[in-house]
Specification:
7 helices, binds NADP nicotinamide-adenine-dinucleotide phosphate, alpha/beta
């Protein structure tokens, strides 16, 4: 399987990249990001890109892939509403629209989060934006698209969040996350389980398009 990975420098993406590099079934990983991962591996190639709403300049390098694991995303905390909508909806759909045109046989996996609002009508702004992003991704003519909705994610193997306060929460309460990851699959997974589940679903498919934390942990 040849994979394109967005958000490889983040908490989710670092975990996914690690599992892709370890998985013998993943032949090639193309990382598209604005900052380097700092990793070297025979299977890994990176494109540093600036405008995440326009891929015209690198289109020729984005064809021939089986799966996109889209882990680029931001927290809405402290962020202006329009900026959050732009970074969540516009950026994700720009990548997806380009990739589906270049790779009609592609499986697209998007990482959203628990409580995403599929109705797009609920009280939480972030959840409505994520819901619309999911809904519009599911309308695109990919071979298949899957929405992964983890709740908490225990970072393992040196994985760290790019968002300072998220990282602090995970570091300070590490024993609690570890306990929850073992006992509460509805509310906690690990960066390792999430990465492995994304690869398996990209390869083998899944009976439904939206996967909650307990689904991810059961894979
Ligand atoms: N962490 C959790 O516990 C958790 C739980 C549930 C759901 N999620 C969801 O998972 C997704 C990823 O979260 P995360 O925790 O991995 O976030 P993170 O650690 O903050 O990483 C964010 C990633 O997105 C990239 N990015 C952010 N803004 C960008 C921009 N303007 N242009 C290009 N790239 C940009 C970052 O690249 P740079 O390195 O260049 O900044 C980084 O690779 C989000 O949608 C989040 O809602 C996370």
């Amino acid at each position: 399987m040849k994979v394109i990975l967005f958000g490889a420098t983040g908490l989710v993406g670092q975990g996914v990249l690690r599992e892709c590099l370890l998985d013998a079934g993943v032949e090639r990983v193309l990382v598209v990001g604005r900052s380097p991962t700092g990793q070297q591996h025979a299977k890994l190639r990176e494109i540093l890109h600036k405008d995440f709403t326009d891929y015209a300049a690198i289109e020729s390098e984005l064809a021939g892939y089986d799966a996109c694991l889209f882990c680029l995303g931001v927290s809405s905390v402290g962020m202006d509403a329009e900026r959050y909508r732009h970074l969540t909806y516009d950026v994700t759909l720009a990548a997806a629209n380009t990739l589906v045109r270049l790779n009609p046989g592609m499986v697209f996996i998007y990482v959203t989060g628990r409580s995403t609002d599929s109705t797009e009508q609920g009280p939480l702004r972030w959840a409505r934006v994520k819901g619309k992003t999911e809904n519009d991704l599911l309308k695109l003519p990919f071979k298949a698209a899957y929405m992964f909705r983890p709740a908490g994610i225990q970072p393992l193997h040196g994985v760290r969040s790019k968002t300072g306060w998220v990282n602090a929460i995970y570091v300070v309460a590490a024993p609690l996350w570890s306990y929850l990851a073992r006992t509460s699959p509805k509310f906690m997974t690990t960066s390792e389980k999430l990465g492995r589940a994304m690869i398996k679903v990209a390869r083998d498919g899944y009976p439904k398009p939206v996967l909650e934390s307990e689904d991810i942990n059961a894979i």
